[in-house]
Amino acid sequence: QVQLVESGGGSVQAGGSLRLSCAASGLTFRDYAVGWFRQAPGNDRELVAGLTNGGRTQYADSVKGRFTISRDIAKLTTYLQMNSLKTEDTAIYYCNHFFGLATYWGQGTEVTVSS
Length: 115
Known about the structure:
Elements: E1 3-7, E2 10-13, E3 18-25, E4 33-39, E5 46-51, E6 57-59, E7 67-72, E8 77-82, E9 91-99, E10 102-105, E11 109-114
Parallel strand pairs: 2-11
Antiparallel strand pairs: 1-3, 3-8, 4-5, 4-9, 5-6, 7-8, 9-10, 9-11
């Protein structure tokens, strides 16, 4: 059974930092591409950062230069380092692993950035 468990969310003031983690189990971790998505109230879920199984990254324009996606294959964990946080980064953040037609989501972790 595949499980993705996010952690690291919380409340922070604008300009601060958080590191989100997504621990995976039940899948061949290195085969999967990973993504961090977020969904703010009233908005659609959007891709924030992606990492292919070959190590290529992509970022939403709104987070470029502030967020960094990475993974530790030995720990089966994906990270999202978020620096210089802005109030507009407030959302529930979800990690996603996908490979071919298989896609899995975590339960989400909430990030609140106050001014």
